[in-house]
């Protein structure tokens, strides 16, 4: 291998690109050239050349604002936040139980056909979980409390 490289370095027709590719890589070939002390066009093989880095400054006016890039649900959330609605999904609002009778059930809002509801029955530490369906009518919990699903428009 070393005789091939030495012949390549002496040849007139060897391209500079091929020689630089063979000598700049930090591997077995580079260590072999270092041990042999073979020169190449432009200097010793032991001194690897680094490529220059070119950078350009970015102007703030060239950057795109977030509201121009977002789409879908994230865009709707961002528009609602600009209007002052910090909780469009109602996660921080706890639905308090009403009277819970069959003729006056607790209304649970949902934009879907079903919703998972947890009921804290009789001072239990853990809630009792149940699915409330859209066209099912009032659903009764183990404690006797009734819930019903109400359709609301999605965000």
UniProtKB/TrEMBL annotation:
One of its GO terms (biological process) is mitochondrial electron transport, cytochrome c to oxygen. GO terms for molecular function: metal ion binding. PROSITE patterns: COX5B_2. It holds the Pfam family COX5B. PANTHER family: CYTOCHROME C OXIDASE SUBUNIT 5B, ISOFORM A-RELATED, CYTOCHROME C OXIDASE SUBUNIT 5B, MITOCHONDRIAL. Zn(2+) binds at residues 119, 121, 141, 143. SUPFAM superfamilies: Rubredoxin-like. Keywords: Metal-binding, Zinc. Coiled coil: none annotated. One of its GO terms (cellular component) is respiratory chain complex IV. This is Mitochondrial cytochrome c oxidase subunit 5B isoform 2.
